[in-house]
Write the structure tokens for this entry.
Amino acid sequence: MFGSLRWGEVRRFGDAALSIGAWTPVRAAALAEAVRREAVDGITDVVGAFDSVLVQFDPDRTDHGSLAERLRGVRPQRMPRRSRSVEIPVVFDGPDLEEVGQRSGLGVDGIRRALVRAHLRVEVLGFAPGFAYLSGLPRALRGVPRRAPRTSVPKGALAIAAGHAAVYPQSSPGGWNLLGRTDLDLFDPSTPPYALLQPGDQVRVVETQGDGLAPDDKTPPRSPWRPPDPAFACERPGFSTTLQDHGRLGVAHLGVPRAGAADPVAFELANALVGNPRGAPALEVTLGGPTLVCRRAGHVALVGPGAQLSVDGAAVGEGRVVPVAAGHRLTLGSTGEGPRAYLAARGGFAAERVLGSCSSDRLCGLGPGPLLGGDELALGDPAGPMGDHLHPGALGGRRPGGVRRLRVLVVEGPTPGGWQYGLFGRPFEVQEDSDRVGVRLRPDGHGVRAPGAPRRSVGVVTGTVQVPPDGNPVVLLADHATLGGYPVAACVIAADLGELARCRPGDTVLLEPVTIEEAAAARRALRRALDGAVVGRYPTAAG
């Protein structure tokens, strides 16, 4: 198949990841485990797929060439063969059952009988936390293709597509055919090994009746946050305000998205202004912000081009350190040119961590979730010195007419690259249904050319440009799935991920191919700009 990788072949996947050929899921799992055991400095995550392994790295700590050379020497050990059997009780009442029955020729009753008799096996974990790709479908069901993606598939849905079956562990977007449902919990972030199903497990579907089997797809309302010694109280939560930090690293092989701040540039600058470490938790504000009441004195900074902040009704603007006192009311208005802005407080917001991060993930619901009215927020201890304000133009901005340029690297593998799709030299409009999972683009005129033949899911990274069957590209953002089955054309370079996150519905996007050398130069230029973006020092004492 065009774009497939030979065993052990290493290719670029954007400028912050590599893909290694592995041929089969078993070999991919063994190779991924061997890479993780190497503990190479700079590697941030390793994801085994069906016939490849994705290795994500920090381009500020290592580079493509030296890492590729190191990985070529990794030799996987033979993985122990698992013999555990797991039964999944299923009610066959999915909305796509009749359509799949007609397409496969089995009918509804034939599908039920075929799946109950099938010997299914876990091949790969990925896409979402605990999501297991199951092989062993009856021949008549293996050819059922993916469908147009739904914005929300309910938790516990039994589904099939492109030769595999799976159960959705959480409510999430998805493009598989829904045949039934189960109430079995497949992922528990508090208990290792976290995912119920593991590669190699044997899975049996057991048909049951609907009585007493009703998976609860709605998360019950949580209690308000009540930390000791709170610094702020939420009076009004805004459209969608979440805590975000550096995200979840090292758990993508479980299907857990990294999450974290969607705009890493604005996030870092907000923290830098108030003297916090780069990854300190901050509030990510979407479209319209919250109203917070201060419980004690402190300092805050809001960063986002054109974002609005007022204290007791007096506008103070963004991009500068703002002192606050007990009783002050902070109102965050519009986020300005982009859909997001970041409010950092000196010391960093304190919150419970899940799998190493307090970030809230839209795809699968990990983390504390959106801010609610009545929540209280605590702070950590102050760290470094504060700045005063940001250098003008620190975040750049849109070109006239709302045009944003995103520089991309054409993907070398394991899927065909972007040239054949017609991605370049044409404008795209950002769609209303864009979110933290992905920026959805629509071309002016006919859609992008997508290949007719599907390929097996591969590991993907933030900035990956996927081409679904409708020809409308999706550029993956912070909460993207760890594996993707749509063809991959290109990746937005690391230096432009902040610009990607600032794409607002209605903006025009131009995708511009660059070389790996140009991507590296852009990253260095961004680092220099960030290091020099904070101007002055805020006086912490009179005089």
The chain is about 15% helix and 30% strand. The first strand starts at residue 10 and ends at 12.
